[in-house]
Amino acid sequence: MTTETLQHVALFDKCKSFTKARELQAVGLYPYYRPITHSEDTVVVIEHDRLEVELAQFFGKEACLVFSTGYQANLGVVSGLVGRGDLVFLDKLDHASIVDGAKMSYGETIRFNHGDLAGLERKLQRVPGGTGLMIIVDGVYSMEGDIADVPALLKIAQKYGAALVLDDAHAVGVLGPRGDGTAAHFGLTDDVDLIVGTFSKSLASIGGFAAASESVIHFLKHNSRPMIFTAALPPSNTAGVLAALHLLQPPWATTSGRARRRSCRSSSDRSRRRFSSGGSCSRRACSPTPSCRPRCRRRTAGSARA
Ligand SMILES: Cc1ncc(COP(=O)(O)O)c(C=O)c1O
After folding, report:
1. What global pTM score does this model have?
2. Could you tell me where in the chain the CATH 3.40.640.10 domains are found?
3. Which fold has domain 9-235?
4. CA 104: distance to chain centroid?
5. Which residues have CB under 6 Å of ligand 1?
6. Which ranges of the chain does DSSP label H, i.e. alpha helix?
7. What confidence score (pLDDT) does residue 304 get?
């Protein structure tokens, strides 16, 4: 670990003190949900719990919560955890779902220039101690192709007692030794507080997830409106995601998973080289996502970023 000071993460105090549901569970009054059984249907195969357990294992976290889309996962994590009096720090190029989650939360949003960690730190220095803080960034920026500097972000997060959240939509399946994302790519899985992702990219389905400590996931299960007040993922999608997740891992795909990631990497490097002759490729782009902008001075009508 590269950090100087390891501070308490005030944002998670609410998760630790949220005991109501556990008390009801302990006296058998509240099961959280009741699984459908054979007596209610002819064939019952619900893989939802299994998917959450396997995702938690895959991402090296204690627990996981599945959402109906990746968009809702970000909405649910940010609005669920950032409450009144808390602050959420967003990179200006964060995905729209993070921006919308911040708008939906009762906390205050502070944005910093893309990748400007000195700027982020200056903003954090002005915050009174004990404030609940979240820093949330994309692991891989979809439009720029660069990878978040997780070691430096973590150093700052830990110095100021902020929770660090990565949206790994574009990293899952392609970065990390097992395709297990940006935190794993840097060997910092244990230190990153939450990993959020989508099933709509390399897992070839629809849905999203958040992986974190058990207390944070338990809190989100009871406080994340984009998860509670909408329908769950259909079992067919859940099964599809499980199958895709298995293809990334042994014994299903020890070498072929690695070979596929290598091949993805070399085609994106090739594309980047080729595009750079006709446009300008981001200098910092080093992820499997090649990002190139055509050399065209005129703005197109629809060129907008969320
Ligand atoms: C970085 C990022 N986060 C979240 C999402 C939302 O994922 P979903 O399509 O599952 O809603 C996307 C989708 O494009 C994305 O690129």
Report:
1. 0.89
2. 9-235
3. Aspartate Aminotransferase; domain 2 (3.40.640)
4. 17
5. 69-71, 74, 95, 97, 138, 142, 167, 169-170, 198, 200, 208
6. 13-16, 20-26, 48-58, 70-81, 96-104, 117-125, 150-160, 182-185, 214-223, 225-228, 235-247, 254-278
7. 44
